[in-house]
Write a structure and sequence with these properties.
- The structure is a homotetramer of 254-residue chains.
- The N terminus of chain A is likely disordered.
- In chain A, 58% of the residues are buried.
- By secondary structure, chain A is mainly β.
- Chain A is globular and about 70 Å long.
- In chain A, a hairpin with a 3-residue loop joins strand 8 and strand 9.
- In chain A, the strands form three sheets. In chain A, strands 2, 4, 5, 7, 11, 14, 15 and 17 form an eight-stranded antiparallel sheet that branches.
- Chain A has a single domain, classed as Exo-inulinase, domain 1 (Jelly Rolls).
- Chain A is 6% helix and 30% strand.
- Chains in contact: A-B, A-C, A-D, B-C, B-D, C-D.
- At the A-B interface, helix 1, strand 1, strand 10, strand 11 and strand 14 of A face helix 1, strand 1, strand 10, strand 11 and strand 14 of B.
- Strand 1 of chain A pairs parallel with strand 10 of chain B.
């Protein structure tokens, strides 16, 4: 430790030739902080069915492989979530519409696993297309991007129609893939302008694809990102007419 | 999709009463981007020995359980890394000094697993203490923080003597724990001031403990964070006189 | 314009050798956005008495040179602000205590001018010391830092006891100086942890001294930055026992 | 000061009921930092001809009202800057092409004043159109946006075709307006991806219009923002076929 201090000191003095020395005494205790004490969380275990971890103790489990109790239809009028549950997975029922969580969220860590259909049918945006919408509005794209060229701000790991992923770490159709997401909500002012944008960090299959990316606004299929003031919002999963599946879905408010 | 657009539109118009409509035509293609194409990366598999993932295809494996070929002594004069390798783990040899990677890094994703000794001996900063230094300078604390009160900016998951973790998701002594780190290097100007600080995001056992935290400077045991200009630097593991172990260590430049 | 596009395109294709071309048509209109329309603000004029600008049309004038109507005492029990107003300036009445605005704020742009006493009396922290506290808690230091060595995280332009200024652009004692501040409030979670820290950008006499600096917590004279959850807070001016003056104070919520 | 500490302490303890007290002693000196000492800069004076400040002592004056010595033509082949200098102002010579600084920059503070023609001719993008390009690539829009509706990501204060200004604080045609800009350069990786985007903060006539805005890529008239790796770049002023003028142009590397 002594050595470290000397090294840092030498570097600093080499750089700033006439730097002044601090005339006063420091103790180890003088940079200690004792409150607030971070809350205890029991982490999950390596997932038996999935990649990554199971839900930690403070997570809200949004899908545990058994039922759709945490979800409703995203169609006007709501109603029960019209997707199917089988073999521990939740699968899109094409043309039945999106599904959204009953609960709304602002700042969170989200874990979700997804799988494009094993049988490849179509290409580009037609293969295993779905999406995970932050606060119901900002889409993290889900797509079978394995040997499947499309526009790069529309491939898996992209913030749809905005920011491409840093790399493409997908696995093949029929294989489970994981998203680990850290998201903080935007803050709007009275004018409806974004004073702080949403920021998102994403690992896809454990590989960084978005690092503190500022989301520009909504992620429409047609048009530019829109600035649309809102409060807490649900997680939305998109029906894009493909039988894309999800499992091991949990969220922690941060 | 049509519905989404209408909803966003309704919100926007409700908010800005006299907003103008865009007089021109948008097509889906008009917000597509086709270059550069993100590089392919084959992700790792769920780790057999550890938690989380094995190294993806573009990672540099810093410790694969077999040898210390990627490391040297951090003592003045360097030389072979003096820690021990057994049972797939790398363990600190107390009083032999720190070890550092041969390679230097700037912006990266780091995966590293660590284990405090199963036999609890001591308390506070004396239990399973070690540290993982970003660029050899900025310490992500390693400590057996299971039922072990200490100053909060010195517990596991903290940026040492700076920023406490958001929560405490540690497991018990003798159990393996994982860090997944995203780090971007600081940028200094000619005066030696930080124009952009280092930013770090950390998951501990899959749970977010640091989110885009700005590192203030060095992390000394005694004294304030120092601003010390530097270029790329190694990963350093600290000898803090405890037999803390590490395994499954890999890094990806981002 | 055509040339720019070609240049950008050449660079991109040179870099990513096998990049794909976008097969579809873009029009100028396809990247236009028409709502929300930014609100009109009439800017101030170059200040007759001060440096920089007078208050724009949407600012709240906190001190216009005439009275202390926008301020109260920061002492327990409150009461009228005990500082003096003369010659268009507001001056600290030593030992009478701090003053705070009646209104509270979260995200804002603040303009404030200050002047250390012309007669130099004392040194270091004893010369023209005061402070401007964001949300009543986070201190932007005010000090006569003209040929006056002190600790660098305590000189004018510093976030007190945290972050030194990038440079030292002060003018001499008795001269008016300006701060232009952009500040966004922290966001806390239920645990009392900061999910988003306060960020501050500061120009001192028109020269950048803090650029999107993350504030670590409170700025005590003794001890480490504390994480202390709070809502909107006032601007506080510190009584540090010096007759430091202020004028042309306005704030805009952003 | 004692009171402040007690207050902060009360808040913290009220929040975290069983928080532990720090058992050790802090002194005022323990949070002081003495190096590096911020470099001295003599700030400018309130500008006689313009708004805001004249150049501080460490600025590079890019236009002082007299000549175009710091500029060259942006046309292929370069050559002398083909714009006109009269009455202390620099005015675009329509159809002669853009002009760029001889020097290149990365991280900086830029002050520049501009004026749309007093005689209004045309509307929308046709009124007083020009642009100030960061590193020659990222456009901060210049436009006579006084009672002149156009797309909001194309009005004065916008990052062109990306981010609208927070408010519209322009003055009328024929009046001088000021931009104060803080800009940090993007960082690219070997793949040509942006690891850190450019960030920009802009005051227009002293009013905040962009706050730490992440720039998404290039700002083309047609098409999406492109990710185009580059090093330091010049300031570029755009010939958009209008006789827009500039004056009091200076830049400081930060």
């Amino acid at each position: 430790m002594k050595k470290l201090i000397l090294t840092a000191f030498s570097l600093a003095t080499a750089f700033v030739a006439h730097a002044q020395l601090q005339p006063t005494k420091q103790t180890p205790e003088s940079s200690e902080l004792w409150t607030p004490v971070p809350r205890l969380v029991t982490p999950g275990k390596p997932s038996a069915v999935g990649s990554g971890f199971t839900a930690p103790s403070d997570a809200i489990v949004l899908f545990d492989g058994k039922n759709l109790d945490s979800w409703v239809s995203g169609n006007e009028g709501g109603g029960p979530a019209p997707w199917t549950v089988a073999d521990g997975a939740l699968t899109c029922a094409p043309k039945k519409g999106d599904i959204v969580t009953k609960q709304s969220f602002s700042d969170y860590q989200l874990h979700i696993e997804w799988r494009a259909p094993a049988k490849v049918d179509g290409n580009g945006q037609g293969r295993g297309n779905s999406g995970i919408f932050m606060q119901g509005i900002y889409e993290l794209q889900v797509l079978d991007s394995y040997n499947n060229p499309t526009y790069v701000n529309g491939q898996a790991g992209s913030i749809y129609k905005q920011t491409m992923p840093l790399v493409n770490p997908v696995v093949g159709p029929g294989e489970w893939q994981t998203y680990d997401v850290v998201y903080t909500a935007p803050h709007f002012n009275k004018d409806g302008q974004m004073v702080i944008p949403p920021y998102i960090t994403v690992l896809l299959n454990g590989v960084l694809v978005q690092n503190h990316t500022a989301i520009q606004g909504t992620t429409p299929y047609v048009g530019q990102p829109m600035i649309t003031p809102h409060g807490p919002g649900p997680i939305k999963l998109q029906d894009h007419n493909n039988t894309t599946s999800f499992r091991n879905v949990w969220i922690r408010e941060i």
